[in-house]
Amino acid sequence: MNLRGRNKVSAEFSMSSMTDIVFLLLVFFLLTSPAITPDALDLILPKAKGKTSNVQKASVSITKDGAYYVDKERVSEYSIENELKKVLAGQDEPTIILRAEEGVPIEDAVFVMDIANRNKFKVVLAVRPN
Predict the structure, then answer these.
(1) 3-state class of 14 per DSSP?
(2) Half-sphere exposure of 102 (CA within 13 A, CB side)
(3) pLDDT digits over 70-112, tens only?
(4) pTM of the model
(5) End-to-end Cα, the chain, rounded Å
(6) What pLDDT, in 10s, does the model give residues 105-127?
(7) Alpha-carbon gap, residue 51 to 85, rounded angstroms
(8) Are the CB atoms for 61 and 41 separated by under 8 Å?
(9) Rg (Cα) of the chain, in Å, rounded?
(10) Cross-strand bridge partners of residue 100
């Protein structure tokens, strides 16, 4: 007499649902990653140990040739302060991300930091990871 049951339980684990979840996460991160990058010019930043903050209120970029940009808009050296006041008006913690290209004279970066200091703006220096 055969007393074995007809229903056999499989001890294998199906990876198809896990693969679907990983694929959906991959697609999600690929689609949202361009939205994370700040509005800034494509500059070669100096290397340093540390990381740049993702919280951005305003971005000031300085190129090697001495051009100043506030949020991708080119401004003259003399109108930076007024432009920053417009952009950061009404902010709780006004923050500037300073993006000085590699090789920019330190005087140009100090000029923007001095403006931030006079107006009580917080300055974050953007760098390229080591």
Answers:
(1) coil
(2) 9
(3) 988 899 988 989 998 888 888 888 888 888 888 888 898 899 9
(4) 0.57
(5) 74
(6) 889 889 999 999 998 888 888 87
(7) 26
(8) yes
(9) 26
(10) 62
